[in-house]
Amino acid sequence: MLIFESSKKLKKHLNTLKANGLTIGFVPTMGALHDGHLSLIKTSKRACKVTVCSIFVNPTQFNDKKDFEKYPNTIENDKKLLKKVGCDILFVPSVHEMYPNGFVNGTQVDFGFLAQTLEGEHRPGHFDGMAQIVYKLLKVVGPHQLFMGLKDYQQQLIVSELIRKKRLATRLVALDTKREKDGLAMSSRNVRLDKKSRKTAVEISKTLKWIKNKVARNKTKAVLTLTQQLGLERLNGFKAFEVEYLEIRNAKTLQAPASGREKLVVLIAAKIGGVRLIDNMLLN
Ligand code: PAF
Questions:
Q1: pLDDT of 105 over the 90 cut
Q2: Which atom of ligand 1 is nearest to the CA of 56?
Q3: Which of 254, 197, 207 has its CA nearest to residue 228?
Q4: What's the pLDDT at 3?
Q5: Whose CA is nearest to atom 9 of ligand 1?
Q6: What is the pLDDT of residues 124-140, one digit of tens each?
Q7: CATH number of 2-175
Q8: Of 149-158, 229-238, 253-262, where does mean pLDDT reach its minimum?
Q9: 37 classed as catalytic
Q10: What is the dihedral of CA 208, 275, 27, 267, to 10 degrees?
Q11: Is residue 107's pLDDT more than 80?
């Protein structure tokens, strides 16, 4: 596996590969890799000739300084895992490399409601920082295909919009959330859960499934509203949770459902034991 720290050198290397007709797959990450990331790498490897993974803990997307400071750093283990699954190139830039002119936002894309609701409401500035770094990374790597997980549901919608608005020649492939055996969505933040919180954390995915079953046969507005309320009560019943939101939304626009015929997703964000977790499930 080749390791690059310089954007310029990586870009030059990839341009040569592209000139030779090789397709590039890209998996951007913040490290602390788990099976969810590795499955993105494996899918990229099957779809593209060359797979690039980036590890960069992006300061501009953390609205909470403590969350940034506590973000797990397991770089040596990450490198081992990437080699094991056959990742071709790892990009590990410094903060200065990605933000040579300081934290100025050069993306200038207005994502509107998509970035203002849910995570946007609870993590102000998060999506501006995320879109900013993804745009910078896409400009360096210029991948044919970009692989992201559906666990960050809102994020992948915004990245899809970024690609569309910036007219980038990259296809976004969003893959299903990888789950632990009991159903907990895999996340780099899970390592910060203590034993008790880890045990209760599974109630997030159980609540998602519970909601999916409840609305399986009837998605009228009234049923959706009632189920959302009951789902919230179910989760709040576990005192360890501090629920930020539990919402059934249109899967494309994230607006409140207008009717039951549209594609729907239920999304949850909740803190447990000081760790903020998110998860979601498509309802049809
Ligand atoms: O999902 C993540 O790990 C990050 O938001 C991303 C896409 C790597 C941008 O920093």
A1: no
A2: 10
A3: 207
A4: 98
A5: 130
A6: 999 999 999 999 999 99
A7: 3.40.50.620
A8: 253-262
A9: yes
A10: 20
A11: no
CA distance linking residue 168 with residue 99, whole number of Å? 21
**Residue 247 tokens, joined:** 């919402």
CATH fold of the domain at 188-279: Pantoate--beta-alanine Ligase; Chain: A,domain 2 (3.30.1300)
Could you give the maximum distance between any two Cα atoms of the chain, in Å?
58
pLDDT digits (tens, 9 = 90+) for 149-164: 999 999 999 999 999 9
Q: Are strands 89-91 and 50-55 parallel, antiparallel or unpaired?
A: parallel
Query: How many whole angstroms from 110 Cα to the centroid of ligand 1?
Result: 19
The residue nearest atom 6 of ligand 1, judged by CA position, is 29
**What atom in ligand 1 is closest to the CA of residue 134?**
9
Query: For residue 133, what pLDDT is reported?
Result: 97
Amino acid type, 25: G
The pLDDT, as a whole number, for residue 54 is 98
* Binding pocket residue ranges, ligand 1, CB within 6 Å: 28-30, 58, 61, 130, 133-134, 152, 155
Domain-by-domain residue ranges, the chain?
2-175, 188-279
